[in-house]
Amino acid sequence: MQTLEQLKSGQLKGATRLQLAENLSLFPTEIFELADSLEVLDLSNNQLDSLPDDFGCLKELKILFLSNNHFTQLPGVIANCPKLEMIGFKANQIVSVAENSLPKHTRWLILTDNKITHLPNSMGDLYRLQKLALAGNCLTALPDTMANCHSLELARLSANQFTSLPDWLFQLPKLSWLAVSGNTLATQDRRFDDSQSECVSTTQTNKSVGHVNLSDIELGEQIGEGASGVIYRARWLVQPKWLLGESLDIAVKLFKGEVTSDGYPSDELANCLQAGEHQNLIKVIAQIDDGGQLGLVMDLIPSTFSNLGLPPSLITCTRDTFPAGTEFSLATIINVGKQMADSMKHLHHNGVSHGDLYAHNTMLNTATLSKSGTTLFGDFGAASNLHLLPSLQAEAMESIEVRAFGCLLDDMLNQVSQQVSCIADKAIFDELIELSQACMQTQLPMRPRFNEIGSALKALQYKVQGLADVAI
C-alpha cells in the first residue's frame, strides 16, 4: 500500500498499481498524473462518495476497487474508461445503477452488500461479462436484456428479494456457478429425482445433526478462513454422548454473521446440513447455535490432504489457478473426477446445488491417490436449496453445475504430469477431453448428467487399470 504523501511528491510516477486507504473524503486529483501508466486503482476503505467528471482520462485503467466507501449511486463516469473491465463497489450504500453507467467491456462486476433495488436495461450490453456479484442487495428482478449476457459464467444472486427467477437465467450457455439462496422464492417443495426421471415431492433428506454448545469445545489454532467464517482446530471438553468413542480432535467453523459475497452464513449452514453424508464430503458431526453464534463441528481433515488448486486470479477471472509445477497423472484426474461426480450426484439427489464446484474447494489426499478417499469436498457458502425452485429450473441447475465440472476437468487436464505419448494414454486423454467438452457445450439439454459422467469415468478407470496390469 502506498501513501498520499508519496503520490503528491511524485514518487509514484509511472506506477501501474495504486492503493490508498487514508480516510479520504475527496478523490486525490494527483492520481491523474498517472494516467499513462495506472492499470489498477484501489481506493477501498475510505469515505468517498463521488468521482471527478474527468475520471475517464485514466485511459490505461483496467481494475477499479472502491469497496467500503459512501457511494449511493454507481458513478457513471467509470463508463468513460476505455480499458476498465473489473469493477468493485462492495459494501457501499448504492441504491441505483443508472443506464449506461458501466463500460460495455466490463468483465467482472462486484456490487455485493449494497441497497440496489433494480438494474438498468443496459446490463444486457455487457457482452464480456463473466463474473457478477450481487449478493446482499434489494433486487426483486433482473432486466430481461441480461439474457444477452452469453459470456456470464458466475452469478451471485443470494440475499436479495427475488420471489422468482427468470427461466432465461438457467439457459445462459456458459453459466457454471450460480448462487440464489437467501431469497423468498415462492414455489412448492419439489425436486427432480434422477432415478425416477420425474418431479417428486420431498422433505428434508438429511438425518438430524445434533446441537452442541460452544462452551463444550476448546478452540485451538486457526487453520482456515473464508468469506463466511473462520475454521479452528479444536478439541472436545465435553463430548456429546452420540459421539462417544470418536476422536476428541475436531474442526470448528464459526460463522462471521454478516452477508458475504456468496450470501448469508445461515443459508450456508442449512444447505451444508441438508447435503447429508457422503464419503467425499467433509463430514459434519454437530451444529452450533450458541447465543447467536452459528457454527459447524466437522471431522478434522488429516494432514495428508491439501487443496487441489488455488482460487481464480484477476486475470483468469472464473477459472482456478495452480501452483507452479503442479502435475496430475491421468489416473489421478479420472479418480478425482469420478469422486467429484459422485459427490455432485449425491448433492442434487438431496436437493442441494453447490454453486462453487472448484479445485480450490476440493481437498486431495496425496497418500491415497488411487483409492475412494482421494478427495474431500466442502465450502457450501454458495449452495442453494433446489426445493425452492420450479422443477425445470432445479433440473437446469444440474446442467449448470455439470459445466463447472467440465471446467474443473479441463483445468486438471491442462496440468497433466507428462506429455501423453503412448497410443493407449493418448486415447484415454482424448476421451477425457471429449467428456470435458461435452460438459461445457452450450446446449444445456445435451450435457451429460452427473450419473452418466460417473459411469464414463468408471469405465476409464477400468481401462487405466487394465493398462497398468499389462505393464506389470
Automatic annotation (TrEMBL):
It comes from the Bacteria. InterPro entries: Kinase-like_dom_sf, Leu-rich_rpt, Leu-rich_rpt_typical-subtyp, LRR_dom_sf, LRR_domain-containing, Prot_kinase_dom, Protein_kinase_ATP_BS, Ser-Thr/Tyr_kinase_cat_dom. Keywords: ATP-binding, Kinase, Leucine-rich repeat, Nucleotide-binding, Repeat, Transferase. Residues 217-472 form the Protein kinase domain. It comes from Shewanella nanhaiensis. SUPFAM superfamilies: L domain-like, Protein kinase-like (PK-like). SMART domains: LRR_BAC, LRR_TYP. One of its GO terms (molecular function) is kinase activity. ATP binds at residue 253. This is Leucine-rich repeat-containing serine/threonine-protein kinase. Coiled coil: none annotated. The keyword ATP-binding applies. PANTHER family: PTHR48051, RAS SUPPRESSOR PROTEIN 1.
